[in-house]
Amino acid sequence: MTQEPQPSASMLSPEAAPDPAFEAAYQAAEKSAGEGGIPIGAALAREGVVIASGHNERVQNGDPIAHGEMSALRAAGRQKSYRDTTLYTTLAPCAMCAGTIIQFKIPRVVVGETRTFDGELELLRSRGVEVVILDDQRCVEMMRAFQENKPDLWAEDIAE
User: Fold this and answer.
1) Catalytic residues, which ones?
2) Which residues contact 143 (CB under 8 A, 6 or more apart)?
């Protein structure tokens, strides 16, 4: 069952406040871009409170598995359980990150966009993870610009 895209923060009415956890993920993506890295950010939240955020650090740290989701989970440190958390990410998770979401039984993932990379959403759904797609235009524009300007780095990140 495919979930319909939700309005992005940029599409919401002025009265609607942006989700602080998604905004933490978006700000992390912007930080990575500012550092010359891959502009993907993530945040882990429990009951609407951000536990930690992180961004793709492959370039900055020379670490091939330092994707945004992995960075956020690393920053969160050990948790007794992840079953009451939501992972927010600016881009659909890849197979590695989806596997980690499944491993730690994170029940819900909120995705900024899937237009530039469709990731492994069906894998997540097949394992009972609720997937919400925001279709946030800011995320789409950031990734399109990155993919256009640094295609080799993008191909490296997704192992193509």
Assistant:
1) 69
2) 39, 40, 90, 91, 113, 115, 116, 117
CB of 117 closer than 8 Å to CB of 91: yes
Rounded CA-CA distance 79/156 in Å is: 31
pLDDT tens-digit profile of 25-49? 999 999 999 999 999 999 999 999 9
Is the CB of residue 46 less than 8 Å from the CB of residue 70?
no
Could you give the CA distance from residue 16 to residue 71 in angstroms, rounded to a whole number? 29
* Alpha helices, H only, the chain: 20-34, 58-61, 68-76, 95-103, 121-126, 137-149, 151-157
The distance between the two most distant Cα atoms of the chain, rounded to a whole number of Å, is 42
Residue 32 and residue 54: Cα distance in Å, rounded? 9
pLDDT digits (tens, 9 = 90+) for 45-101: 999 999 999 999 999 999 999 999 999 999 999 999 999 999 999 999 999 999 999
Token reading at 120: 């492994």
Question: Alpha-carbon distance 149 to 46, whole Å?
Answer: 36
Structure tokens given for 40:
């993907």
